Amino acid sequence: MPKRNCRFEVRLSKDEFYNLSKKARKAGMSCGEFVRKAIEGQTVMEAPSVDVPVLIREVRRVGYSLNEILKVAYSRQLLDVPQLRKALDDNRTVEKMIAEAYGQTWQ
Do both 56 and 90 map to the same domain? Predict the structure, then answer.
């Protein structure tokens, strides 16, 4: 990251400063970081609540369990494999939707 040695001062009203601070706090950033990202044209989104990483982990856990059941069902020809495969695909779709909604993926 380049050294930041140029200073730029902006005067804001109390309302403007409050709005900037509120938006930066919601995004989980400092005001300076928020402004720099906005200047670069990057989309600044609200930071996910602490529950989102937990939710993604849980969806992945369920997907892993479905995949294990699918392997056993396929080898023993016990269950409706196409229906189980669809459930696994649906689970992966939900995981991707959650990750894309918050602009990140959690490992």
Answer: yes
